Amino acid sequence: MKHLFIILLGLVTLFFSACGSKIPFTQQQPVKNAALVYIYMVPTQNDGIEIEYNAFNVRFNGKRVQGKISPNEYMAYNLKPTQTKISVVKNQIEEFALDVVLKNQEVYYLKITDNLDGGKFNLQVVQKNEALKDLAKTGLAGSSIEGSDYIVDALVSKPKKESNTITKTPTSKVERIQKAYEMKDKGILTENEFVKLKTEILSK
Questions:
Q1: pTM strictly above 0.70
Q2: Do 94 and 131 sit in the same domain of this protein?
Q3: Is 39's pLDDT higher than 80?
Q4: Residues 1-4: contacts with CB within 8 Å, 24+ apart?
């Protein structure tokens, strides 16, 4: 009986340590002169049938942004308040796109649904209440690697913060390259993307 308890305790510890690898969802506000867009994915109900889900790349106006979104993950993007083509890409080939008119200081929730009839997927705008229930079950995409750096500010500049505090020492080039290498090793970056990023880091 004692051995059984130890085994169960070990399994519970393993479960919670795995769940803790992602930064839990945190509600944000748009930055100045921007609209905030959440894109997330939760598994569909499968009646106990094991389903293999894909990770999705995100594009804005055809331009791919860093990272991928997998089931039970989300990303947050601050975008220019204008009409924007937002799309998700499956297996680097199949794409589903929405044209969304983004308004300044508004928050938008876009949900990826995979494994529909015929293996299809889609991206849809959902209401805040529904989205927040879904997002509460998610963690920040890539947070086990990069932490909050995966909250991307795409196509809009963050306002500079005035502070009297001592400026933090910037991350060294070696550390930044190491992080990029880890992302490549995890499949988040391709070899070409890693080489390009490494070159950019070294050139600064």
A1: no
A2: yes
A3: yes
A4: none
